[in-house]
Each structure stands twice: as C-alpha cells, then as structure tokens.
Amino acid sequence: MLIVNIIMGFDFGTKNIGVAIGQKLTCTVRPLTVLQSQSGIPNWEKIKDIYNIWKPVVMIVGLPLKINGDEQPITVLARRFAKQLKKQFPVVVEMHDERFSTSEARLNYFENHHNYLRSQQDIKINAIAAGVILKSWLNQSFRI
C-alpha cells in the first residue's frame, strides 16, 4: 500500500489566509483555497474542515520577514497562528521564510490569468503564495 504524506501550507494574513496542499512523494503542490480572517483571527472551523478532508502530516506556515531578515508586526501574528495550529492538530507545524512568495505568486498568476478583476486576483494570489511557500519548503527539505 502506497502512503502519500500530505502537507498543508499557509500564507497567513490579517484579512486572508491562503491555503495550499502538497505531497512529499512527488514534491508537488497546488493552491487550495483562501480563508477569510477577522483582524488576524482565522475561522478555525473551516481550517478543521480542510484538515479533516486532507489529513496532512505536516503544516507549513509562511514566516513573513522584512527583506533584510528582520521581523515585523505580522511576524508575531504568523508565529501565534502556527502555535495555535500545533495546539489544535496532531501534526508537525513548521515556519518557513516567505520572503518574495507574494511576488512570485503574482508573477505566476499574471502569466496564467491576466484577464481577471483585481479582487479575484488578490484572493487567488493568497492561495498561490501558500503554494509557493510550500514548494520552497519541499525543495529545501528534500535536497540531496
């Protein structure tokens, strides 16, 4: 029996939280959805629903740092989100540097969806950014 280890990635934000899934076997990822949050507080019921569907073994939360590597106010909130994930779910939760993930997500998005409205772009970009974070973590974790 082949066991596929699902990994879930999060691009944390105070208004939107992008979610992506991936798997270790093929090191592939895909954007999944964007969850709304209120002042940085996520809808935990929706996160539980997604967890129950996908049953990830690892969750990766993007660590938002300044370009020079310093922390910023959103960094504290992202760390708090990661700690809450650890308390709520029986999985490994790790933080991963997300610098430039939104820029890469925007580039990926515009290469494939240049005719969408701005509001649609922002929502999808959060999920794509979660995928970029997850792909970066997979690439770093499985280097030979």
Automatic annotation (TrEMBL):
Cross-referenced Pfam families: RuvX
Keyword Hydrolase: yes
Keyword Hydrolase carried by entry: yes
Subcellular localization, as worded in the UniProt entry: Cytoplasm
InterPro entries: RNaseH-like_sf, YqgF, YqgF/RNaseH-like_dom, YqgF/RNaseH-like_dom_sf
SUPFAM superfamilies found in the cross-reference section: Ribonuclease H-like (SSF53098)
Enzyme class per UniProt: hydrolase
Start and end residues of each YqgF/RNase H-like domain: 5-105
Keywords: Cytoplasm, Hydrolase, Nuclease, Ribosome biogenesis
EC number(s) from the headed UniProt entry: 3.1.-.-
Entry similarity comment: Belongs to the YqgF HJR family.
Function: Could be a nuclease involved in processing of the 5'-end of pre-16S rRNA.
Protein name: Putative pre-16S rRNA nuclease
Source organism of this protein record: Candidatus Blochmannia vicinus (nom. nud.)
